[in-house]
Amino acid sequence: MRTPRHAARIVVLDPEGAVFLFRENNVEVGIHWLPPGGGIDPGETPEQCVRRELREETGWTDLRPQRLLCTWEHDFTHQGVRVRQYEHIYVTSGPRREPVPEDPRAHWRWLSPDVLAGLGEPSWPPRLAELLARGAVEPVHLGLVG
């Protein structure tokens, strides 16, 4: 049995279409790239969560979610608890700049669409390059991804 956990992330695109992502290495998941975001606090909406997480993880306070890109679910262990995480992934555009992350050891990068598509390491959400290439259309529900 897995504990439900709700989370939200925000994909930031610069004017040339490069995406801002963090690179993480998790014992269970391995190396993967993901946009700023995290768990939704009690009483918080997904949109409020991404604005808070973006501020905490990058120091940026001027960006707002522009549209919902996708939703997806995945299982992993978070702080020792087996969870099924339900994620909302938003998109916004903003200037290309360096973050002031809460963790100075954070590994981040602006990735062009071509680099993202050929990255060779997983991204959260899966198929991120493909989803971004689709442009502004209806959000996609990826379902439970193993």
From TrEMBL:
Q: Which InterPro entries match?
A: Nudix_hydrolase (IPR020476), NUDIX_hydrolase-like_dom_sf (IPR015797), NUDIX_hydrolase_CS (IPR020084), NUDIX_hydrolase_dom (IPR000086)
- The reply on keyword Transmembrane is no
Pfam families recorded: NUDIX (PF00293)
Asked if the record carries the keyword Cell wall biogenesis/degradation, the reply is no
Q: Which UniProt keywords apply?
A: Hydrolase, Magnesium
The cofactors required by this protein are: Mg(2+)
Q: Which residue windows are coiled coil?
A: none
Q: Which GO terms describe its molecular function?
A: hydrolase activity
| Residues of the Nudix hydrolase domain | 3-134
Q: Which family does it belong to?
A: Belongs to the Nudix hydrolase family.
Question: What name does UniProt use for this protein?
Answer: NUDIX hydrolase
Provide the species name: Streptomyces globosus
